[in-house]
Amino acid sequence: MDRLQRFLCSRVLPEKVGRCLLPHQEVCLGSLFSWLLVGGVGCRRRASCVSCVPAPTAGPESVSWRRQGFLTQICVPVESSSPLVMSNQKEVLRCFTVLACCSPDRLLAFLLPKLDTSNERTRVGTLQVLRHVINAAAAQMEVKKPVILSSMKLPLLDTNNKVKRAVVQVVSAMAHHGYLEQPGGKAMVEYIVQQCALPPEAEAVSSGPEPTTGDLQSRVHSILPSRPQIQKLGADSEALAADSVRAISVSTLYLVSTTVDRMGEVLWPYLLEFLVPVRFTRALSPLCRSLVHLAQKRQEAGAHAPLIQYNGNVHLPSPYAITTRLLAVSSHPYVGDGRGAASLRLLNVLHQDIHPALGQRWVTAIPLLLEHLDEYSEETLSQKEWEEKLLVVREEEKTRVSLLWEQEEKTRFLRDSLAVVSDNTWVCHLTLEMCKQLPNYNGTPLEKNFLYKCVGTTLGAASSKVVRKHLRELLETARYQEEREHEGLACCFGICAISHLDDTLAQLDDFVKSDVLRKSAGIFNLFKNRSESEANKVRSALILCYGHVAAGAPRELLLARVEADLFWNMSECFSTKVLGIKVETQDPALRLSLVQSVCMATQAICSSAHSSSFHLSRKAELVAQMVEFIRAEPPDSLKTPIWKKAMLACTYLVTLEPALEEQVQADLIHSCLHRVMAVLPEPEEGDSPQEVSAAPTVGGDPQELLLFQSLYLDTVQVLKDLLTSLLLWNMTPLGLQVMLEHLSPWIKSPRGHERVRAVGLSACLLQFFLQHLQISALVPFHNLGLLIGLFSPRCADLWPATRREAVSCIHSLLYLQLTCVGFSRDYQDDVAEQLLSLKDGLVHPDPAILFHTCHSIAQLIAKRLPPDQLINLLLTLFESLGDPDKNCSRAASVMINCLLKERGNMLQEKVPEIVSVLRSKLQETQEEHILQAAQHSVFALATHHCASVVSNLLGSPLPFDSHTCTLWRALALEPGLAAQVLGLLLEKISKDVLFEESQAFLLSSTPDRVATLLPLAATCALHEVASAPASGPAVLELYPQLFVALLLRVSCTVGVQPPRQLQAKERRSASSGLASRSLEPCSSAVDALQAVLVRGGNEDVVQCMELDGGWQLLRTSAGHEEGVTRLASAMAKFAGPRLPLVMKLLFTTQSSMYEVQRVTSTAFLAELLSSNVVNDLMLLESLLYNLMARQKDTSARVRRLVLHGLANITLGSPDKVQTHSPQLLTAMIGGLDDGDDPHSLVALEAMVGLARLMDLVDAWDLHAVLLHIAVRIRPFFDSERMELRSVSIGLFGHLNKACRGDCKDVFLEQVVGGLVPLLLHLRDPHAPVVTACRFALRMCGPNLECEELAAVFQRHLQEGHDLHFGEFLNTTCKHLMRHFPDLLGRLLSTSLFYYKSSWEDVRAAALMLTGFLVLHMEAEQRPQVDLEQLLTALQLLLKDPALKVRLKAVKTLGRLVKFA
User: What is the DSSP string of 148-192?
Assistant: First the structure.
């Protein structure tokens, strides 16, 4: 046998085994069935037909074993893709058909127990065989129907999807063969309905693909996949959707209802029992379709008979229940396979059973509703429009209910139906049923909310008693913990209030006053009450109810009760009292409810015909409450509609009387803007990269994104409405300005989306203002410039949308100006319209095109801007220079320059303000483009008002900061303007008081000189202007004036202190530890002079002075004259061609009231004479004339410098000395005779000059004055000042040198008179004096006409040789006494004068001279000696403090012995 089985499995492919199995052959096939049962038919290679194989005989046990084998083959999963496998399975099922026909009892006894097994495969396979047997052996199974129905109890309870599919297929077969008409058949129907109501989750649990649906009698066959396919198809959602249990069940129910005539009595009205139970909600669509078909068939059978015959059937739903259920599910028509349309069709069919009066109305109304649904899809249908179609409102109620439409969803269909029925009893029953069904929708809040609205609608048509009863029940039974239910409950009350306002408010008030909201007054009893969150939810619902009541209340009744009954109760519900203290909750849901309610109430008030005269006393309180809610929300998110609702409430509130206070209004605007502007909107197609990068990420859910965008757009629109409502209170230019000032921070925001939004809001406000402005008289638009200045820079914003809106704002402002001055609203201004044509240029990304467009916009603005508004516009644009958006900052600069160029001539009086703003703007930032903007602005302004600009810049605090210096340098950009500026600065320097003298201390002997501010500021400004490279041409043009003015300025500031305020400022900076740049007047003038020299092309002069230290000398009092001298020398050397004009200007300063200026100019001119350049330039004559004219100057320093300059001719033009020798000598002698010089400096300079002139002047002219000179210089031999002694003695030597010849005899007396001083000063403590004495004595020798004495002078007094004074003096005295004995008395008396000298060496030398004269005198010379006088003098010197003097006195006394 085993060999046969293996052979058949591998070799034999028999066919059509079923065709050979006749009833009388069953017992003969045991061996073959055994082989089949052992091997199975699942293998593809096995035969499915064994008709040619001889079968051995077998007994009953063998047949049972065969049946088990066939069943096993059915239970094994097969691959549906193989036709051979499918054919094999069909042949096996035919085997069961043969068995059912020949032995039905034994077969059922075998199959039915298999249904009780828990094995999935066994149960599914058994159900497949049972279905096949029912269809194929209907006659044999007719008497077995009760048994088969009874055996289905356990399979009906199986939750496996495969089993469910098999059960549905069996039930379908039963329906076609009359099984369901038997007792227990309704259970099969209920099972099908249950499968139609399967939720989506249950369908997804399927472990394999669902079977397809075909002819329920013969074509419903399951093809079970193999185990690997189960894993693959488990994730195949399309297969699951197409072959799901629910899909098969829905098709089965509909086919059974429509194709099996005998099922009509079974299904009708039995299927009605499944309409109301919530668990069958997902089956409503197929149920309604089946019921509609069944009802229509029954109507055809009996047109006037009621379709529903209750006959005591308590399980059938009442007409009220059916109406309630079908209305509730029709609110969302596309949910649940379009159950809304199916429900409406069923209602239409059942209208006669629901109420006889509804037939005509529903027959026309319901088809129209169905047509509307056919025109749309779930995505395109407007839910609000659909709800409006479901609610018919009488004309007198449309105004009130329209407010509710905006807040809630309502039905129209029900209201019309109630009006048609007009039966209070019927309405009461319907209301009761609706209230009864409310708990059924706890899991579907949308439908429950709709049912609440239906309740409200029916209550509106009920009596007052019914209304009170049901409203109270609704308040007590509502599920307040479910926030979604609050809306439905509130809608119910709102709709009811349309007809029963008093009853509605009464029930709400009673409920509020009940213990539901009452909290214990004791802190220890707080925990005994309901939790805080539960109480908040109740209060939230009640507040919402009051809001809806206000929205639905008749307007003629609302105004009288809104404050006392509505707003007061809302406030009481919102806040609670703990220990007597009123506490407001922080619950966001409660806040949202209050906001929504206030919004609805205020909207209802505004819609009243008497709203304009209504005075809302709680207005300020409500607005403050809304503002608080807005502020409490997160600033950068838009997750709830509380902002939108709160702003909407404020929008309606602000339209009511009384007007809000300014501060309250400002707080409201600021809070709303602060929240809405911060929200980042989602990016849209076409947005710029900046917009996309700044956009937030709401989430990946498209629905969430759509909701966010919708809420965002609605919120922005509400904000626009709020701002325009506020603007209506003050429709004046000032009111417009106030509104735009609130938007200003966001217009200038660094965030692009905030700027776009703010400028867009501004454009809306301006357009609204323009449209609603009523002009009864011409009024000035006094803030036009300020507003245009606010939007103009935005024309270059980084975001194109902002640019476009900014141009629109400017366009509206220009038309507002035209309207204010009397133009009509429809007037088209060419200039204003040109603005719109410039929008294309603003879209261009090229900065050059963008800023050129901004320049064009500024030109158009300049044409229409009133003169008095120009300054406001400019000041606002100056503020925009610091805009975070660099493009806007640059655009502001472009517009400022354009306006200043076009209209700057009108700003004379505003220059101080503009300059001040520019200076402060530079102090705020270091941005390069702002710096350039300020420079261009001050330059443009100065082209119109140079003097005013210079004057105001000079008023800047000293020392000038870098920003002020920048502005000064800007004035040098154009040579013509720079020349004007330099000329004005020169005028300030020259004509103002240069310094002030003040007594710094009470004990101070000399006053301090303090610089004045204006010349000091002008000097600093001149330095800045001259430092700019562009100022070169202007400096060259004014070079002489600049040089002379600054040179004199330097002279006037030497030793001058800074102004007192600057000193105080420096002390404060030092005490506070802050670094402060000191400002020294003289240094500032020197710096300016250097800048002028450099810019004038005389860098060599500057470098020469730097190398010689001349600049440092100029800054000091002691070295100033020397510094001027070195400057003159450098100018003569490197800038000779510029000297004529410089000298000409210096000549005019010789009569200056300031001594220092005369000194400086004289020093400079005097030094020029030491250079030959003055001779080359033919300036010598004029220069000498000018200097000589200053000999009588009141200043000794000037007189001295004059003499110094005259003497310099010996260096620069020695050949011209003889030509001018009389004048030169006269000037020098005049200097010797100067008696107004206490320090003899003029005489000193005269002696120096004479010494320099001696060798060059004409001899005849010199001889005429020799004696006079000698006499005038003799007193200086013994001067205390070394310079006077050395110079005078040296000059005496030069006089002796020049005296050779005819004048020798005349001059001999002067030589003898000066001999003793010259001899004694050889012991002078100062070497220059000694050197001068040696030179003078050598020159005097020849004039004494004593060759021996002259030889002694030449031998002993040569330069560089050491002098033995005692030997020299002894020899000299010997020759004097020998050749000039008559001079003894004169020499002794002269030497006695020097006994009192302040120098001990000179006193000692005088004693030695006396001793040597006495030693070498002869006896006949004794009468010339006054011995007594001599002795007296010597006795005094014996007490001299110097030892050597006392020794010399003793020695000299010893030599007087010869007089004994």
Answer: HHHHTHHHHH---HHHHHHHHHHHHHHHHTTGGGSTTHHHHHHHH
Per the DSSP assignment, residues forming a β-bridge with 998 are 1008
User: Which of 62-71, 102-111, 167-176 is predicted least confidently?
Assistant: 62-71
Residues 6+ apart with CB under 8 A from 211: 165, 169, 220, 221, 222, 223, 243, 248
Residues 6+ apart with CB under 8 A from 798: 688, 690, 752, 885, 887
C-alpha torsion 1229→1233→1237→1239, nearest 10: 80
**Do the beta carbons of residue 786 and residue 876 sit within 8 Å?**
yes
Q: How many residues does the chain have?
A: 1460
The 10 Å CB-count burial string (b at 16+, else e) for 336-374 is bbebbbbbbbbbbbbbbbbbebbeebbeebbeebbeebe
Which one has a higher pLDDT value, 632 or 1162? 1162
Whether 332 contacts 447, CB under 8 Å:
yes
Q: What is the pLDDT of residue 1002?
A: 42
> What are residue 615's DSSP bridge partners?
657
From the number of C-beta atoms within 10 Å of its C-beta (0-12, 13-18, 19+), residue 824 rates as exposed
How is residue 1306 written in tokens?
């005349």
Rounded to 5 degrees, φ, ψ at 1202 are -60, -45
1392 touches 1433 (CB < 8 A): yes
Give the integer Cα–Cα distance in Å for 271 and 190.
Answer: 8
With bands split at pLDDT 50, 70 and 90, how would you rate the model's confidence at 1113? very high
Structure tokens at 562: 């809104």
Mean of the per-residue pLDDT values of the chain: 80
Residue whose token pair is 């088990």: 68
Q: What is the pLDDT of residues 1025-1069, one digit of tens each?
A: 999 999 999 999 999 999 999 999 998 888 888 887 676 566 555
pLDDT for 359 equals 82
pLDDT at 1042: 93
End-to-end C-alpha distance for the chain, whole angstroms: 197
Which three-class secondary structure string do you get for 1234-1245?
CCCCCCCHHHHH
Distance of alpha carbon 99 from the chain centroid: 90
Handedness of CA 259, 261, 267, 272 (dihedral sign): positive
* Nearby residues of 527 by Cβ (< 8 Å), 6 or more positions away: none
Would the pLDDT of 1189 be above 70?
Answer: yes
Helix spans in 514-618 (H) = 532-552, 555-561, 568-574, 588-606
Q: How far apart are CA 1441 and CA 1437, in angstroms?
A: 9
| pLDDT beyond 60 at 79 | no
Give dist(CA 1136, CA 216) in Å, integer. Answer: 128
Classify 743 as helix, strand or coil.
helix
Confidence of residue 1345 (pLDDT cuts 50, 70, 90): confident
Identify the top-confidence range among 297-311, 736-750, 833-847, 1291-1305.
736-750
Distance CA 845, CA 796 (A): 10
pLDDT digits (tens, 9 = 90+) for 365-422: 888 888 888 888 888 888 777 767 775 433 334 444 444 434 333 336 778 888 888 8
How many CA atoms are closer than 13 Å to the CA of 158, on its beta-carbon side?
A: 25
Which H helix or E strand runs over 302?
A: none
With contact defined as beta carbons under 8 Å apart, do 49 and 17 qualify? yes
Contacts of 1222 (CB under 8 A, 6+ apart): 1258, 1261
Neighbouring residues of 778: CB distance < 8 A, sequence distance ≥ 6? 820, 821, 822
Residue (of 286, 298, 292, 303) closest to 261 by Cα position = 298
